[in-house]
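Weekend entry, working from home. Most of the wet-lab plans are on hold until the incubator is repaired, so I used the time to fold the two sequences that have been sitting in the queue since the last round of cloning. Logging both here for the record. First:
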Amino acid sequence: MSFFETTDTKGTGNFELGGGEIALIPNDTKVLAVCEDAKNDMYNTEETIKLKWRVSQPAEYANRILFQKLRVYDPAKGAQHKRMLAAIATNAGGKLFAAMEKAGESTPSDASLATITNQPMVLQLGTWELDDKSKKGNWVKAVSPRKPLASAAPVKAAPAPALDTGDVPF
């Protein structure tokens, strides 16, 4: 029995599987997503941190994959991209900061970046398109926690009970 037994192997050599263009997620849409992979990356001579996000909600965008490059090492864009990474790390529980400190890292390693994965958070998306309209896609404009962080308003403590010092021997 041949592997291609039920397939015409004497055809023209042309075949199209189908598919088509995937529509962009509209500008300013907020989605719930999880970072599946975070690692240092090098493209040409530019060092970046590359994140892979998987959208889970809303349902019409579920399982869409988004890639994000954080240019944290770029002298011009680094400060803004570091703030984005810090927000992602905070939303993921702050473990990145502790992992870097424990490992004595001045820049995040792939091992410490793994601490920001598998934590759902809200992404606000933008759209991009090349001038010649040959390519287009989505990009991550903003990140926020899945649920709002606890209120920053201080909780007023109850007054301590008065102590009767009459029996204290000092």
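Second, folded right after the first finished:
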Amino acid sequence: MKRFTREILIMLGAIALLGLAMPGAKAQETNEFKTPSNNINCALYEQALRCDVRESTAKPPPRPKDCELDWGHAFEMGVRGKAAPVCAGDAVGGNNEAVLGYGKSWERQGFRCNSEPTGLTCVNKDGRGWTLKKSEQRLF
């Protein structure tokens, strides 16, 4: 019995390592993902979706007077209502998120994101959201 249990544990470990080595294989099943360019990272937090653009050439909207943190790279929306830029001192993602390949979609809790070579478009239940890319951040 001990040998059988040991073999199962070794197999499970190998399967887990394969899952880590191929993060793009499960992007549609996770709460965090990034675009293939590695420029946009997104995460689902309870009832909010946040996406950050790492490098941008777009002009950000005017900074709110009460924002003392980074501005113009982070965007958030709830399941309902408008999307908005957020004043943030942190960043979404690291390097281990699953890749949401071009032509693929991600859906969770009333949000839908489509990854295309032209950018990442995410919408909520109200059809509000954004299209993000290096050269433009358009909220609608």
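Plan for Monday: verify the second prediction. Helices lie at 2-21.
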